[in-house]
């Protein structure tokens, strides 16, 4: 739906991909560090080919562009044409952010001024981004705009690298938008639906919210097909640590007690934001945050205190005093004595091990392989319900029509079980299935950009 106050004639001018010639799409998988180049002839997907080239340096760094030049040079050498070849560019989602901006109903000029003020508060330096938007809703005298903020850093270098190797980008869009375009074209029945799309890959899942045929939001879950185990029930809280969140909570508690903040090993006191950034950087570099800068004697004393506390708790289960408070007071007094003798010692964050759920909170153990797979699939169902609740609470949509899932045909039984019986979900699930003459469900982000002139045109740049 396009509102008169947001009408553009170009929205109705479809640019369909030509059926002749070779189509080349360049994309990037920054998680597995590969440059992906997909090629098809005359839109015949049965004759398509996907090649992946690894790179080592950080994405958009100088070293990366040097590697990219070598990869594109090698690929261009295999092209039969010596002329410039049109291609399509798909940039990673990390270069794009989406947000919904809500303002009261007002005249066009005043509305633009209000939007500019809101955006200046959202972005520290608005000039670093290219803004794309559309008017999503005008309910209850409220205008809701959906914005895509695209970081301009690296764009010119990417296009320059393509141009120097006989490739010229015709359409450029971001990964989630391209993936959704592929779904809308290959499954036309979803063009007018409000749905959640889950593209479940081997070790992660891309989640896209589609409202009225347009991308509204996207995110990434650290859950994938490898978590659909056939032999054991997995607990999501045991799959990964929440180091930044735990650090934020720890510092908030210490600040409330007027203590010094826990900081990284590198510096003295820093802001919580700086500490969180440092933790993220350490995690990306594979630094073991479990490491503690304490002596072996201190470790033994700590273990002895823990054993003493455990014995007391067993001997006096109904005691009136709080053993944890006693241990904490002892620890505080020891820290004070240490500070008096040797000066203050900077505390270092220790990664917390997630706790297993108690037995009464666990579901019954399945009796077959499909049962185990479904119990693990419930982690995905939970996230689908949470996203639907967010959309409803924010009054963007009353309810989603369905959750479309990209999984192989062998997982179809999950949809049946989620939609029927005692385990019926609040949101219906549908399987995407095989798409195209040759199944291209594993590279929808490559296919979808071919139709960037037909769907989500406002998010094409």
Describe it.
With 461 residues, this protein is α/β, with parallel strands linked by helices. Helix content is 34%, strand content 21%. The strands form three sheets. Strands 3-2-1-4-8 form a five-stranded mixed β-sheet. It has a five-stranded mixed β-sheet with strand order 11-10-9-12-13, with helices on both faces. A three-stranded antiparallel β-sheet has the order 5-7-6, covered by helices on one side. α9 (369-393) packs across α10 (412-419). The longest helix has 25 residues, at 369-393. It is globular and about 70 Å long.
Order of helices and strands: EEEHEEHEEHEHEEEHHHHHEHEH
Order the strands across the largest sheet as they lie in space. 3-2-1-4-8
**What share of the residues does DSSP label as strand, in percent?**
15-25%
- Outline: globular
How many structural domains in the coordinates?
A: 3
Structure class: alpha/beta
Query: What integer is the average pLDDT?
Result: 80
Number of DSSP E strands: 13
Number of helices: 11
Q: pLDDT under 50 segments (min length 5)?
A: 290-296, 317-321
